[in-house]
Amino acid sequence: MIAYSIFMFVIAVLFLIFGIAIYKGNTKLIHDYHQTNVKESERKEYGRAFAKGMCAICATLIISGIIALFGEEGVIVTASLIILFAGIIVSFVILAKVQKKYNGGF
């Protein structure tokens, strides 16, 4: 589970870096078709809201990785995976709401 935790932490750092960059206004990191209907005046707010979803993914990966460090028993592995999938679902719900609000949908 050490390898799983390290993998989760590395990916979490990448999501954090991209989330911070998007939060600071670099919305070019978001694919063009996800922001076709976003008004120029709302682009900064859109980036900040989108970054919150990215940071939620980061937090999910970190928590899942930390739980995995407690051992390789079935209960711990199951808890780690439940946290991972639940967090990813919550994160995608956040991103979907942002897309619906600022872009009018996907």
Explained architecture:
By secondary structure, this protein is mainly α. The chain has 3 helices and no strands. The longest helix has 30 residues, at 74-103.
> What is the H-and-E element order?
HHH
Report low-confidence residues grouped into runs of 5 or more: none
Helix count, DSSP H or I runs of 4 or more residues: 3
Which percent band covers the strand fraction?
under 5%
- Class derived from helix and strand content: mainly alpha
Kindly report the average pLDDT value.
Answer: 91
* Structure summary, number of beta strands: 0
Major sheet size, sense and barrel closure: none
Measured distance between first and last alpha carbons: 36 Å
Helix content: over 70%
- Shape, per Cα inertia axes: elongated
Summarize the model shown.
With 106 residues, this protein is mostly helical. Helix content is 74%, strand content 0%. The longest helix is centred in the last third of the chain and has 30 residues, at 74-103.
Which tags fit this structure?
3 helices, elongated, 106 residues, mainly alpha
Annotate the secondary structure layout.
Layout: H1 2-23, H2 43-68, H3 74-103
